[in-house]
């Protein structure tokens, strides 16, 4: 009985050291990977800015006008108001040594214009924009929707979408990192 006890004690000490060893070696591998990535991968971020103006209101259709005004204030005015929005699209990845580009900014401009700007510019976000249907037309929801639209196109280019930043006014902006 005593030998059994002694054996299981030794076993659990051995298990302890094996698990510590495994954790440490995992840590070493991830540290090595980070050092490798830091020295050899040169991650670069580039941004394209586009502008559009659009009308909207912040109001839930299932709330009364008074309820909407209580929460959203003048932004809930029934007859809409407009903003000059600024959209910043940032993509990241590595520079192609042949071209010196991460992606061609002219290509990025075209993708943003085709899939976003043409759909929102001089429109009503609540009424005219398919990807905002059924959503509250806040800057947060707009940024998330723009991310969802652009992400697959950016991925196709081999780059990665990093950030969608939208200024609704000079003082108010939203950033979304997916
Ligand atoms: N979390 C959010 N809050 C608000 C949003 C939004 O999208 N997300 N939007 C609005 C209004 O639509 C609008 O942006 C606010 O206008 P305003 O208060 O006039 O903001 P300004 O920067 O133009 O005015 P200041 O004078 O700088 O306050 C409200 N909230």
Automatic annotation (TrEMBL):
EC number: 4.1.2.50
Pathway the protein takes part in: Purine metabolism; 7-cyano-7-deazaguanine biosynthesis
Pfam families in UniProt: PTPS
Enzyme's top EC category: lyase
Entry cofactors: Zn(2+)
Annotated TM spans: 20-40
Reaction catalyzed: 7,8-dihydroneopterin 3'-triphosphate + H2O = 6-carboxy-5,6,7,8-tetrahydropterin + triphosphate + acetaldehyde + 2 H(+)
Single GO molecular function: metal ion binding
SUPFAM superfamilies: Tetrahydrobiopterin biosynthesis enzymes-like
Entry superkingdom: Bacteria
The keyword Zinc is assigned to this record: yes
Signal peptide coordinates: none
Keyword Glycosyltransferase: no
Keywords: Lyase, Membrane, Metal-binding, Transmembrane, Transmembrane helix, Zinc
Family label: Belongs to the PTPS family. QueD subfamily.
PANTHER family: 6-PYRUVOYL TETRAHYDROBIOPTERIN SYNTHASE (PTHR12589:SF7), PYRUVOYL TETRAHYDROBIOPTERIN SYNTHASE (PTHR12589)
Listed name of the protein: 6-carboxy-5,6,7,8-tetrahydropterin synthase
Biological classification of the source: Bacteria, Pseudomonadati, Bacteroidota, Sphingobacteriia, Sphingobacteriales
């Amino acid at each position: 009985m005593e030998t059994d006890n002694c054996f299981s004690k030794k076993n659990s000490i051995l298990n302890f050291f094996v698990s510590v060893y495994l954790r440490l070696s995992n840590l070493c591998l991830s540290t090595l990977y980070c050092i490798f990535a830091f020295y050899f991968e040169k991650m670069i971020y580039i941004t394209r800015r586009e502008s559009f103006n659009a009308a909207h209101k912040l109001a839930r259709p299932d709330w009364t006008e008074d309820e909407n005004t209580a929460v959203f204030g003048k932004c809930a005015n029934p007859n809409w108001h407009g903003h000059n929005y600024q959209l910043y699209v940032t993509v990241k990845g590595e520079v192609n040594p042949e071209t010196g580009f991460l992606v061609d900014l002219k290509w990025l401009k075209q993708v943003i214009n085709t899939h976003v700007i043409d759909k929102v510019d001089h429109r009503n976000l609540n009424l005219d924009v398919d990807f905002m249907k059924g959503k509250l037309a806040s800057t947060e929801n707009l940024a998330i929707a723009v991310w969802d639209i652009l992400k697959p196109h950016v991925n196709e280019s081999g780059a990665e979408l990093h950030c969608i930043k939208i200024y609704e006014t000079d003082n108010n902006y939203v950033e979304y990192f997916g």
